[in-house]
Specification:
Layout: H1 2-8, H2 13-21, H3 27-36, H4 38-41, H5 48-60, H6 63-75, H7 80-92, H8 94-102, H9 106-118, H10 126-135, H11 140-164, H12 169-203
Length: 204
């Protein structure tokens, strides 16, 4: 994947970073060190501010669309695919949804959502935050602002980390990619174990 972007976007690194940030799970946590990696881009490497801005814009672009699609599926879910998707999403994020529901004031709900998005680790971020927002009863514009604030904090944290270890940006990128793969594999394993337990209980 890195080779694909390096070979096809060497003349417009900013676009590569924007597109990278739009990829689910990857998002800004990978896109920022990607744009700052001299080993990949050479003299075309972006500045910290440019990489931050491109990654932030790219990661935020799908947010409202995700919220609206999930909300439409939730309100008009019909058929096996829609029901399966909504039930699966609600089961996956039931703790976070319950936490949002337990908050009495909108400010606390938005703060909870923003903090969830702000943590720059795999399986959190704009996509997960937007999915949770779509399943909740928050207004779209309120959820978008909370996600935007959380993503700003996340991008800032990753950018500062890369600036602090500017000579190790490629290692930060590779470690981040490895963490994403590990988290995804772990998530798949836990999901399969959960399904197996459910089937066992149903068959008893």
């Amino acid at each position: 994947m890195l080779d694909f972007f390096a070979e096809n976007f060497s003349g417009c690194v900013f676009l590569a970073v924007i597109l990278m940030a739009m990829i689910p799970t990857i998002e800004s946590k990978i896109a920022i060190p990607f744009g700052l990696s001299y080993a990949i881009w050479g003299e075309a490497t972006l500045s910290p501010i440019a990489s931050f801005a491109c990654a932030y814009v790219g990661s935020m672009l799908p947010s409202v669309l995700i919220i609206l699609i999930v909300r439409k599926l939730k309100n008009k879910a019909s058929g096996f695919v829609c029901d399966k998707f909504i039930n699966g999403a609600e089961s996956r994020y039931h703790k976070k949804l319950a936490e949002l529901s337990s908050k009495s004031k909108t400010f606390y709900k938005l703060s909870t959502l923003a903090l969830f998005v702000a943590v720059p680790i795999p399986l959190t971020g704009v996509y997960s935050g937007s999915l949770i927002a779509g399943l909740s009863n928050l207004k779209v514009w309120q959820a978008f602002i909370a996600i935007a604030v959380g993503e700003f904090i996340s991008c800032l944290a990753v950018t500062l980390l890369c600036m602090l270890f500017e000579n190790s940006t490629l290692y930060i990128l590779l470690i981040s990619l490895a963490l994403v793969v590990i988290f995804l594999l772990s998530d798949i394993v836990f999901m399969l174990i959960k399904k197996k337990k459910k089937r066992t209980i149903e068959n008893v």
